[in-house]
Every structure is written in C-alpha cells, then in structure tokens.
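Exercise 7. Predict the joint structure of the components listed below.
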Amino acid sequence: MKITYVKKIKADGSPCKKCAEVTERLENADQMKFIDEVVIADERDPGSLGMIIARDLAVERAPFFVVEKDDGDTVVYTVYFKFVKEVLNQQADDKQANKDILEQNDLDFL
Amino acid sequence: MKFEAQEIQTLSQNFQTRSPQEILEMAFDTVVDVAISFSGAEDVVLVDMASKITKDFRVFTLDTGRLHAETYQFLDKVRQKYGVSIEAQFPRAEDVEALLAEKGFFSFYQDDHKECCGIRKVGPLRNKLATLDGWITGQRRDQSPGTRTDIPVVQIDQAFSRSDNTLLKFNPLSMWSSEQVWAYIRQNDVPYNALHEKGFTSIGCEPCTRPVLPNQHEREGRWWWEEATAKECGLHAAANAPTLK
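Solution:
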C-alpha cells in the first residue's frame, strides 16, 4: 500500500489553512510515519504533481489522501478522520469528522 | 461498486445538457441502491419526476428534530400523494443530549452552525449513505454562486464513499434555475411547502431559516448571523490555466 498526502498552496502563494491543520493533526498523532509521499498541489502551477493527481482523480478539495492498495485499487480520502479510521485503523472522533465534512463540502442544500 | 473517476467524468459530460428526467433515469440505470435526498423544499420536483419514471424509487430525509411544523406536514403530504415511504434519518440521541447539556438549545447562535449540523445532519447522512451506492440531490448551480458554480450532473462523492464502495452523487437539477423549478411545480401541480408562501426560499431547520426579501439571494435566509467567509478548500487552477475538470 502506498499513501500519498496532497496539500495545497493557494493561488496567492500562501499555504491553505485546512492543510496546515491536517498536517498538525498528522504530526501530533505521530501519523506522518504512515505517509509515503507528500505532494504539493500548487494552484499557481497546473503542472504541479498535486494538481495533476487532483485532475486525474477528479478531486476538488484539498488536502486529500491517495491510497494505492496492493491489488491496484486506488481510493481517495478528502476527510482526515475517515482516512484515519479506514486506512490507519485508528480511533477517529466522529464529531470532528462530521464538522470536517461540513467544512469541506457544500451541504447547505440539506 | 467501484467506478473510475474518468468514467464518471465522461458520464457527467455526456449528460450535461440532458433534462433532469433523463439524468434521473440514468441514475436509476447506473446504480441499484440509490435514493433521493428530500429536504422538504423545492427538491420535491425530483420526487414528482421519479414517480413518472418508476414506481420503485426511494426517498430519504434528515429529520433533525428542529424542522418547521410546515415541513413535517409537507413531508407527509408528499408521502401520501406519491405513495412513497419517506425514510427519515435521525441524529444519535446521545450526541444531541450531550450538545444540549453542554451548550443549550441555541448554541449555533454563539458558535456557528457546524457543530449542531454535524450532529443533526452529517452524522445521520453518513449513516444513510453507508447503505447506498448513490444519492440524488436537488443541488443547483444558482443556489450559492460562490461555491456551486460547477456542479456536475454526476460525480463521485469522495466525502462519503467507502473504501470498498464508490458512492455516486447525482445532481439532476444542476443546470436548472429556480425559475425553471417553479415553472415545473406550477405546470405539473406539484405540492410545495407552505413556508414558500411566507417568503421562505431556502428551507432548513426552524431556528436557522428565515424569509428573504425580494431580490435577496436565497442563501441570505440561512445562518444569517454568521459572517460569510470564502471557502478555501476548493482547488482552483490559476486564471487562464486549464481547470481541474
């Protein structure tokens, strides 16, 4: 299994706030050791690896995780807590996961 | 079921100019376990359209416990008119109890709506979507110009997909305007929520929804006390660069 963590640099060159937050969570929980590669999606450069991956996998939000399984299957996670629960098999805070989903997805229509 | 991103993008492009009814038919043909998400508002048109395509369709709603009385009455009216069971999803009682015990009944006015919505909407939605292969929403591009300018008619729902199952999200009304929705409602004698006659455009929970004035955007009737901040999680290619889609 290969895990790629894609974080974003915004069009104005600043790092995205959510990416910084997720990186901090990964570091605090000692989970960076599970990440095989960290890739940057630079909004100023559509040719940056992260932007290419996002385009190929039709991902619209950052940060996100790409999990390439040994059987060749690829799964994208846009919610950190879901990634932690399903891939790292670690406990995840459902309440925080729900807030994350709200922050990263437009669910106002519900 | 597993779908490739490319496959779904192509499907979406092929149906971009099709009617909502054709997109609904495509949804029913593409996945078996698919259900319409019905909020008790204008998305009733999806129920009406589906009823003319098949008698075997599913509808679910999120009963947050804080809906208007008019919305509950409307949900029941729809249930009776279309002879469809409306599958209501409820929040976990212990989560609601903990929130109320700690912060009271109106914490969203002090904090923001995310904690309450997380408990009352997202949790139940996650539970429901875990049982489905696809869901059908009434999302439209004109509802929230800042964030919904590029809603595809079908997409992989990465937030709710599971590692062993790709969840598809169908948005048959994506290309329709509010005017088209209401023209459909009038022409087809579709029932609608009585709150619309009281100036409500967008309808959610009772404490978080209010009527809007003429020419106010419908989103101004939701969470009006919160400062509108730009959502920054989307990936936007620089101007004049090819977009991600």
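Discussion. Chain A is about 35% helix and 20% strand.
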